[in-house]
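User: Reviewer 2 asked us to show a designed sequence for the structure in our supplementary figure. I'm pasting the C-alpha cells here. Could you produce the per-position amino acids so we can include them in the response letter?
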C-alpha cells in the first residue's frame, strides 16, 4: 500500500529541479508541513518564502515574484486558497498571466472531521470560472509527478488540487501514460463510460472491474485535466457508450459533471449521471467514511451503472 501522498510527489519534483533552476520558488501560508514542503524549505531556504496565515498575500507575492522571472509554486489548504485569495487568483495570477502554480493541498473532504469550513467542495467550479486558469486533479503520486514536471515547463497559470492522505497507485512507476491536457483511458468498454478525476479515479477503475464480473463493459477515463477538459475523449466515450457517469469529490454544481454534461448535451449524445458530494454540509468522518456514506466508492458507482443501464432496457 502506497504511503506517499500526492503532495509529497510535488515536493520531490521541485527538489530535484530546484538545484539546477534557481528561478523555482515555493511559497507557503504556514503550511509547509501540511504541504509536505518542509524538506524543500530546509534544503533551499533562499528559494522558499513563508508568508504565514495570509493567503491573499501568498498569491500576491507569488505573482510578483513571477513577474520578476521566477517560477512560483504557492501552496495552501485548498479550502482557503480557493476562497480567501480568490480575487488575487483572478487578477494577480490569471488576468495578469503570471507564471504561478497554485497548489491546493488537503482538497475535497480531506480534513474530514473539521467540517464544512475546511472542506473544498467548490474549488473546481470557482477556479474553472476564471479565464486563463487551468485546473488539474491528479489521481495518484505517479501522475502527480508527471503533471508537476509538465507544469515546470510552461509559464501559464494553473490550479492543482491534491488530497491530504496517500491514495492507492493507479499507475506504475516508470510506466505512466501521460499527455498534457489529455484524459488517460484506463479501460475500454461499450456499455457505460465512467469519467472521474482526482481521488475518485481509483474507485471508478475498481467499479469497472466489478461491472466486468456482471458482464458489463465499462470505459474509464482519468480526467485529471478538468480545465481544459479533453472534449474529444468525452465525445468519443459518449458516442461509444451512450450512458456516462461522472464521479467527483466536489459539489454537484460547476465541477467535472457539469463540464461533461455541457459537452454531451451540445453534441446531442447520450445521458449523463453525476455522482458527487451533496449540496449540503458534508458529514464528518474520514475520507473513506464520507465516500462510503455518499456511495462514492466502487460499489456505489457500479450500482449506479447497473441501475441506469436497466432503465435503458
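Assistant: Here is a per-position design you can include in the supplement:
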Amino acid at each position: 500500500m502506497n504511503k506517499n501522498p500526492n503532495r509529497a510527489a510535488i515536493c520531490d519534483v521541485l527538489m530535484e529541479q530546484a538545484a539546477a533552476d534557481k528561478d523555482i520558488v515555493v511559497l507557503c501560508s504556514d503550511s509547509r508541513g501540511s504541504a509536505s514542503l518542509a524538506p524543500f524549505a530546509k534544503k533551499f531556504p533562499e528559494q522558499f518564502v513563508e508568508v504565514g496565515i495570509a493567503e491573499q498575500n501568498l498569491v500576491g507575492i507569488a505573482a510578483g515574484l513571477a513577474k520578476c522571472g521566477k517560477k512560483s509554486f504557492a501552496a495552501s489548504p485548498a479550502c482557503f486558497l480557493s476562497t480567501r485569495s480568490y480575487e488575487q487568483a483572478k487578477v494577480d495570477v490569471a488576468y495578469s498571466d503570471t507564471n504561478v502554480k497554485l497548489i491546493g493541498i488537503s482538497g475535497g473532504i480531506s480534513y474530514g472531521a473539521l467540517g464544512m469550513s475546511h472542506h473544498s467542495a467548490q474549488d473546481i467550479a470557482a477556479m474553472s470560472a476564471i479565464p486563463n486558469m487551468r485546473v488539474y486533479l491528479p489521481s495518484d503520486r505517479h501522475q502527480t509527478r508527471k503533471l508537476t514536471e509538465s507544469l515546470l515547463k510552461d509559464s501559464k497559470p494553473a490550479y492543482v488540487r491534491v488530497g491530504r492522505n496517500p491514495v492507492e497507485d493507479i499507475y506504475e512507476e516508470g510506466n505512466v501514460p501521460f499527455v498534457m491536457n489529455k484524459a488517460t483511458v484506463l479501460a475500454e468498454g461499450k456499455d457505460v463510460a465512467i469519467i472521474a478525476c482526482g481521488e475518485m479515479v481509483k474507485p471508478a477503475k475498481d467499479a469497472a472491474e466489478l461491472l466486468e464480473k456482471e458482464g458489463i463493459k465499462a470505459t474509464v477515463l482519468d480526467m485529471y485535466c478538468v480545465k481544459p477538459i479533453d472534449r474529444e475523449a468525452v465525445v468519443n466515450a459518449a458516442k461509444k457508450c451512450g450512458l456516462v457517469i461522472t464521479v467527483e469529490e466536489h459539489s454537484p454544481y460547476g465541477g467535472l459533471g457539469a463540464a461533461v454534461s455541457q459537452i454531451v448535451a451540445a453534441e446531442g449524445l447520450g445521458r449523463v449521471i453525476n455522482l458527487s458530494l451533496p449540496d449540503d454540509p458534508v458529514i464528518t468522518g474520514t475520507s473513506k467514511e464520507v465516500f462510503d456514506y455518499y456511495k462514492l466508492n466502487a460499489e456505489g458507482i457500479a450500482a449506479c451503472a447497473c441501475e441506469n443501464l436497466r432503465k435503458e432496457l
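For the response letter, you might also mention the following. The radius of gyration is 19 Å. The first helix runs from residue 6 to 18.
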